[in-house]
Amino acid sequence: MTVKNKINMQFNGERIDVENDITMAELLAQKTLSEGHFIVVLNDELVVQTDYDDTVIKTNDAVDILSPITGG
Amino acid sequence: MQASSWQVYDQTLQSRLFIGTALYASPQIMMDAITASQAQVITLSLRRQTPTASKNGEKFWQLVQSLGCRLLPNTAGCFSAKEAVKTARLARELFQTDWIKLEVLGDSYNLQPDPFALLEATKVLISEGFKVFPYSTDDLVLCQKLADLGCEVIMPWGAPIGTGKGLLNPYALQMVRERLPEITLLVDAGIGKPSDAVQAMELGYDGVLLNTAVAEALEPAQMAVAFSQAINAGRLAYEAGVMPPRAHAKASTPTIEQPLWQQYGE
User: Fold this and answer.
1) How far is CA A17 from CA A12, A35, B38, B185, B216, in A?
2) Is residue A19 part of a domain?
3) How confident is the model at residue B266 (pLDDT cuts 50, 70, 90)?
4) A3 to chain B, minimum CA–CA distance in Å?
5) Is A22 domain-assigned?
6) Confidence of residue B256 (pLDDT cuts 50, 70, 90)
7) Structural domain harbouring A64
8) Number of structural domains, chain A?
9) ipTM score above 0.90
10) Interchain CB distance below 8 Å, A72 and B161
11) Per the CB < 8 Å rule, is A67 touching B21?
């Protein structure tokens, strides 16, 4: 059985460990974010939905999920 | 009677009230107030999800969509041009609109716009195809420079955000109106009472953007109606043409053939 190494990253401001080579699509699935209205930002850059499968998370990457909120 | 419709960038609107979605005691109260206001444009924002906000954010989004209003996302909380530009780009993706209420703040106490950073951010965003709604002070030169950059809409403040102090400097607002006749102008921020909104509209402003005055009323939906009617009344008055004031009294009742004039006259 192959054990994947873990890497440390930042998700919505919190440090978490995730599997090495995890893609954005897999990360979002783990966080049950497959549905809903949000955008994904990786290291301050927008990641479009069509790139989720090809975007591999690296150590110390920062991923933020942005959603609509109330505003004036 | 309804005041004339108006054009805001690519959109023709009937209502001249833009209303915010924040500060309501509950989502239902927000929905009732916005519906009662008959506003066609609502402001909203974007933030990083938290476990609690994630659930609420989705519910909020569903409610917003059910309103069928045009969305005007803001860059609230940004204190630099760079931050505001980045937020605007993300808002465009999230809300699928090129409209952006551009806020670049310069002071954290009175949330006063930073005029220099506002111009800097406006220039970048217009070059990227945004329809910018800059939240500005009532400084005429700043407003002129925003117009020169290509803003078709400018939104000077009446007073600092959330203060409800009304129009602190009607003279400055009037100067902006007179000097920029081709620009669509809304008073944004500081409106406390419907009479403040009437005053803005009587000055010739095309619309009013407000949030706190409705959200923090004891009866938000009722206050929303009051603002809606006040804004319409103010616009109707402006279009009807307000009489010029004069220094001395002028009798409104005719004096010709006044009875008993010989008896009590001079």
Assistant:
1) 13, 23, 48, 50, 43
2) no
3) low
4) 29
5) no
6) confident
7) 37-72
8) 1
9) no
10) yes
11) no
